[in-house]
Amino acid sequence: MTHPTLPESWPENWIAAATLLRCRREALGISLDALADRTRVSRSHLAAMEAARFDRCGAPIYAIGFARAAARALELADPPVTSEVRAGYAERAPAPAPAAVLPARRLIPNLGIATTAALLLSLLSVVRS
What we know:
Blueprint: H1 12-28, H2 32-39, H3 43-50, H4 60-73, H5 78-92, H6 111-128
């Protein structure tokens, strides 16, 4: 399913979640304002979610929470909706940075350790004599 206002690389999961929320709200005949009153989620966030713009809801944890609240208010099971939102965020996550290559450790002893060892040996030799 393509959406005319979204980039081509947009997560299909978000479009599926948005469609589910919007269709259910319209089927129940509930306005966005009424849903905002029920969920205490702002109308602008609800409109963004129905437009599959979960990125406009703040951090992923907020978008997931808003989607859960909307699903419960619309008498939907929240796991399908929240799992779609999570999957969309996982799809949009940047690739992990390559692991940094650490330089090889030198096998030369630390100067402090060598000095301490020399002092201990000299003390032991004085004590023995």
